[in-house]
Design a protein that fits this description.
Layout: H1 3-7, H2 11-33, H3 41-62
């Protein structure tokens, strides 16, 4: 998801998206450890998406 799309979400929606993304990252890490991952670059994309969401949440708290 692009940062522009994330900015349009409410605080509650951002929190839900963060939880969903963290769950997906956990599942991918488990599959990676068992050697069953098809898209290894998806791990990087999920970590970056989590960072974007957390950044937007922090900016919202400061504003």
């Amino acid at each position: 998801m692009k940062a522009k799309q994330l900015r349009e979400l409410s605080k509650d929606e951002l929190g839900a998206k963060l939880a969903e993304t963290e769950r997906e990252l956990l599942n991918l890490r488990l599959r990676k450890s068992s050697g069953q991952i098809e898209q290894p670059l998806r791990l990087r994309a999920l970590r970056r998406e989590i960072a974007r969401i957390q950044t937007l949440q922090n900016q919202g708290e400061r504003a």
